[in-house]
Amino acid sequence: MAVHYLHFYAPRGIRVARAEGQYVWDTEGRRYLDAHTGHGVAFLGHRHPRIVEAIREALDTVMVAPPGLAGPWLEEMLEALEPVLPNGMEYVTLLNSGAEAVELALKIARRVTGRSEIVYFTGSFHGRTMGALSVTSSSPLYRQGYEPLVPDTRRARFNNVEDVERVVTEQTAAVIVEPIQGEGGVNPASPEFMQALRRRCDEVGCLLVVDEVQTGFGRTGCIWAHEHYGIRADIITAGKAIGGGFPVSMVAVPGWIAEKLPPGFHGSTYGGNPMAMKAVAAASRVLVEERVPDQAAEKGALLKQLLEDMLDGVRVVRRVKGMGLMLGVELRLRPDPVLRCLQEEKRILALKAGSTVVRLLPPYLVTREDIEAMASGVRDCVLRLQSSQATQRAG
Ligand SMILES: Cc1ncc(COP(=O)(O)O)c(C=O)c1O
After folding, report:
1. How far is the CA of 249 from the centre of ligand 1 (A)?
2. Distance CA 91, CA 34 (A)
3. Its Gene Ontology molecular function terms (predicted)?
4. Which residues are annotated as a binding site for pyridoxal 5'-phosphate?
């Protein structure tokens, strides 16, 4: 009997042999500049030596230990996280994926407020498990065939302050928001919107869950993207980059919430395993010591500027958007031919967001040369798409 892999993502047509820093090599020996980073996971670069060493230390000593039997790796991680977490976020717990972190955040909100309703936004993406999917709306395809989902969720329009006032009420347990919507199309929240959310949550006594799974850990130029808006979160969900490539996610809460969550309230077999804790500790130290957010801010600003300059006046381009090293080029067409051209002709891996955006999620260690290659690669591939459209029309 032949066994097949059940693919949920269309294969990209290359087979990866190895990866290091900002590069990936395929089995034919071709090198690619990686602006995909496994949906943003390898933000600290592939196989960062300090993270590899930390995971190796765990492998050499203990691979399996539940959090109830924690060892020194727990204190090591907590200490490394201290300069990384926003003031007041004194408690963290680890899970294994972004969606699991979102599930826990929603459970905490219901438990702590005694209310059940969760408000989410158009264009949102919070994961594929049933709870996370119930607050996800970036594509109707994600939900198709799975309804009924978790009840008592209400959708409001992203970046619409009036909706915040109308939809968030005394019935609301939590509002969940991405400071920059990733899968939905690299859509930054406006400052007025984020501030209105904070204000309204305080007025009605509900929790503001900020989903930083894609935006967090320095990618947008601040450690946490909501810091750009000068607001406080009640619950932060994080994932992707926080383990430097190791699969792990995190939920952070302040003390007043933590004290309402007794042992047994939640659990996860793999959550908080020694390898994950060692990886998060090492990644946190790299983040701080290598000034990763500052580097993301500087390099992201350069990449954005080059993209804007090179795409200025190009008819099929609507705009360049995003912050730091989370950027999107919004087209008037589907971006798939641009992604194919980038991969096959320019040897650059990028990904799609929404239905019209070419998304670039490069690691913080890209060089000026890499940045120029990304900008000119996108320009060439977009121009190629534009001229093929013109030819088709003429034909
Ligand atoms: C903002 C956000 N939340 C949650 C998730 C889900 O994370 P995971 O795929 O690790 O479950 C993602 C994944 O892209 C995300 O971008």
Report:
1. 10
2. 34
3. identical protein binding; pyridoxal phosphate binding; transaminase activity
4. 98-99, 125, 211-214, 269
Domains of the chain: 49-290 (3.40.640.10), 292-394 (3.90.1150.10)
Q: How far is the CA of 83 from the centre of ligand 1 (A)?
A: 24
Q: How many A from CA of 58 to the centre of ligand 1?
A: 26
What atom of ligand 1 comes closest to residue 100's alpha carbon?
11
CB count in 10 Å sphere of residue 310: 20
Residue numbers in the known binding site for substrate are 128, 268
Q: What is the pLDDT of residues 76-90, one digit of tens each?
A: 999 999 999 999 999
pLDDT tens per residue across span 229-259 = 999 999 999 999 999 999 999 999 999 999 9
Q: What three-state secondary structure class fits 355?
A: coil
Distance (angstroms) between ligand 1 centre and the Cα of 309 equals: 31
Question: Given ligand 1 and candidates 183, 186, 213, which is best to mutate, with the most ligand atoms within 8 Å of its CB?
Answer: 213
What ipTM does the predicted assembly reach? Answer: 0.99
| 354 neighbors 141 (Cβ within 8 angstroms) | no
Atom of ligand 1 at shortest distance to CA of 181?
1
User: Nearest CA to 256 among 88, 45, 127?
Assistant: 88
Q: Is residue 258 within 8 Å of 55, Cβ to Cβ? A: no
Query: Distance between CA atoms of 152 and 170, rounded to whole angstroms?
Result: 13
Report the pLDDT value the prediction gives residue 207, as an integer from 0 to 100: 98
End-to-end CA distance of the chain: 49
